[in-house]
Amino acid sequence: MKAILTDTTLCIGCRDCVVACRQANTLEPEVPRRWETRDGLSARNWTSVVERPNHVYVRKQCRHCLDPACASACPVGALRKTSEGAVIYDSSKCMGCRYCMMACPYGIPRYDWDRPVPYVRKCILCYGRIKQGKPPACTEACPTKATIFGDRDTLLQEAHRRLHDNPKRYAGKVWGESEVGGTSVLYISDANLTFLTRGRELGDNTIPGRTASAMHAVPFAFVGMAATMSGISWIISRRMDLQPKIPKEKPEDQKDKRDE
């Protein structure tokens, strides 16, 4: 399985990765909105560089979880995890429910409000390039190799080697190694990166594992509700058919009553 390792201590904030992502995915010009979060991500911007205190630059993108909550929450299978590591999206299946946006612990998927038929957009780890044996455009464009691409196990070994060789340089943790079951986008840093999870510690258990029983019950709930409503409709129609018909009075009968 492939993955990305980002070392924030090497990032200079040049944003070449952002430009490369936009070009590789043919993304349209950004349309800023006041109500969107200020992390630089949108339906038209799939990766961003967030500046933190003390000139720490952190590239933000989809984390491509090993057991993605977004795919688990999607009722139509528009999102799925591939064997290569990428979590990809099929707009032909999407019905715009935005359950994936609520499920993602990293707050990544964004809604494309400018489309007549809007869809959810996010980084797909340059899946087409990976299938061709190429690295994602963002990693290829990085001038300092702050973000690199390779096999996940190899990158984890490299991350721990750097932590071991330079303990004073790093915070001593590989973000994404085991959080919510692990991700295909890993980080090492000299700063605390819990802001990527909105300040929350996520734990190591996968989110789909916590909600699987509820999600499996959803289709049966829909079928059960449809059957119940159909039954109620049939009963009401049947009762109306069995009610005695009250004949309508003819105009001459109404005239006779008035004369009386």
Describe the structure.
The protein is of the alpha+beta class. The protein folds into 2 domains: 2-205, Alpha-Beta Plaits (2-Layer Sandwich); 211-259. The protein is 34% helix and 13% strand. The protein has helices spanning 16-24, 69-73, 99-103, 127-131, 137-141, 152-165, 207-242, 251-259; strands at residues 2-7, 48-52, 56-60, 79-81, 87-89, 110-111, 120-121, 147-151, 185-188. A hairpin with an 8-residue loop joins strand 6 and strand 7. The longest helix has 36 residues, at 207-242.
Element layout with pairings:
Layout: E1 2-7, H1 16-24, E2 48-52, E3 56-60, H2 69-73, E4 79-81, E5 87-89, H3 99-103, E6 110-111, E7 120-121, H4 127-131, H5 137-141, E8 147-151, H6 152-165, E9 185-188, H7 207-242, H8 251-259
Parallel strand pairs: 1-9
Antiparallel strand pairs: 1-8, 2-3, 4-5, 6-7
Strand order of the largest sheet: 8-1-9
**Overall form:** elongated
Low-confidence stretches: none
Task: Determine the CATH topology of the largest domain.
Answer: Alpha-Beta Plaits
SSE class? alpha+beta
Strand content: 5-15%
Number of domains: 2
**Roughly how much helix do the residues carry, as a percent range?**
25-40%
Radius of gyration: 27 Å
Sketch the topology as an H/E string, one letter per element: EHEEHEEHEEHHEHEHH
* Multimerization state: single chain
For the termini, the CA-CA separation is 94 Å
CATH class category label of the largest domain? Alpha Beta
The DSSP helix count reads 8
What value does the average pLDDT take? Answer: 86
CATH architecture of the largest domain: 2-Layer Sandwich
Number of strands: 9
Largest sheet: 3 strands, mixed
